[in-house]
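User: What would this chain look like folded?
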Amino acid sequence: MNKIEIAIIGTQKSGTSSLNKYLALHPEFVTHSSLEFPYFVNDELYHKGYEHAMGEYFDNSELNSKIIIKSVGIIYDEEALRRLKDHNPDVKIIITLRHPVDRAYSAYWYACRYGWEKEPSFEKSLWQKSQQENWIGNRFCDYINRSEYSKHIKTVYDHFPERQVLYCSPKI
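Assistant: Here's the prediction, encoded as structure tokens.
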């Protein structure tokens, strides 16, 4: 089974899903059909092992191709970055960036749509400590931290050399 060659790691609400779909159109690459590949950020899935995760998220006939995954949680989670590096220290990283306020505003409405955000205004939600019981809700309601790109990018560079990291910014 091949290792992951390309990891789209973020940021959330910046076109990562679209990029993953576009790259999957290339005949040499395969990717998961689910929105995210949570193997590196989900402790329970990670401890079941790479082969188990690949079996859950990929068709076994595809696993000899070049593998692309998308998981926006990786950029925000140093342990996930360590796990990715342990898996493949030569993996190519793609980070998508969007204007931080636009990204946060989009994340707010996404969280509202799914019922994770209880604050009726974006402005008030910025200063509320997330009280979500659901880790997914906490992840999407962390608007300011997830828009402070420089600290997350620094952490990526603590684990991967610059030559392995590509940035892109969608026109949304």
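The chain has a mean pLDDT of 88. If you want, I can go into more detail on any region.
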